[in-house]
Structure formats: structure tokens, C-alpha cells
Amino acid sequence: MTAAATLTPVVPASAAEPSCGRASWYALTSRTASGERMDPSKLTAAHPRLRFGTKVEVVNPRNGKSVVVRINDRGPFVKGRIIDVSKAAASHLGMIKSGVAKVCYHVVS
């Protein structure tokens, strides 16, 4: 008799619970992992696994501000951070001065 394999259902990213953790912002002008030139004035972000082009709403629970960003890069590469946002997105979230903030995000499309 063989043991039955345990299957874990795959949950589409859009149906996943919000992810919360620390975020930072960056304003480079180099190429992103998707091949685009990074534009700090655009509402974009870096995420380690989400598909390029995915749109996510990022919320700063401390002040209630939110912004929808498009994933176009990989990162963050700092332990404990879940997403890096562009300078424009950080401005919408009210985190320019602090540089880092606790945020929650969820996929919108």
C-alpha cells in the first residue's frame, strides 16, 4: 500500500490574503529586471515573485494612504522587506522621509 500524496491547492495571487511587512523605496535610473528603464516618477514596484505587469494595491496602515503599483522589477534584496516601491509610490504612501514603512499589499490585477 502506498501513502496518498498530500496536495496543497494553488490559490491564485488575486485571491490571496493581503501580505504585510516592511517596504522601502528606490529611485534608480538603471534597467529593471523586466528590461524597462526605472523611472522614479512612475507608480512601479519590485517584488521577488509576482509576474511582471501585475498590479498591486499597497496600503500604509499607519496613515491609511494607498497606491496601485505595477510590478516591473525584482527585489527587495534586504531581509525582512516584502516590496520595494518607486519614489512616486512612496510619496503617495507618505513614506519618503522615513524611507521604510510597514505596508500591506494585495493583487488587484
Describe, in plain words, how this protein is organized in 3D.
- The protein is mainly beta.
- The model is unreliable at 1-15 (pLDDT under 50).
- Strands 1-5-2-4-3-6 form a six-stranded mixed barrel.
- The N and C termini lie far apart (44 Å).
- β3 (55-60) and β4 (65-73) form a beta hairpin.
- The chain has one domain (17-107): RlpA-like domain (Barwin-like endoglucanases), CATH 2.40.40.
- The protein contains one helix and six strands.
Spell out the blueprint of helices and strands.
Layout: E1 19-26, E2 44-46, E3 55-60, E4 65-73, E5 81-86, H1 87-93, E6 100-107
Short note summarizing the structure:
With 109 residues, the chain is mainly beta.
Count of DSSP helices? 1
Largest sheet: 6 strands, mixed, barrel
| Overall CATH class | Mainly Beta
The rounded Rg comes to 16 Å
Overall mean pLDDT: 88
Estimated structural class: mainly beta
Percent of residues in β-strands = 35-45%
Q: Can you name the CATH architecture?
A: Beta Barrel
**N-to-C SSE string, H for helix and E for strand:** EEEEEHE
Helix content: under 10%
Spatial strand arrangement across the major sheet: 1-5-2-4-3-6
- The geometry reads as globular
Low-confidence stretches: 1-15
Tell me the CATH superfamily: RlpA-like domain
| Strand segment count | 6
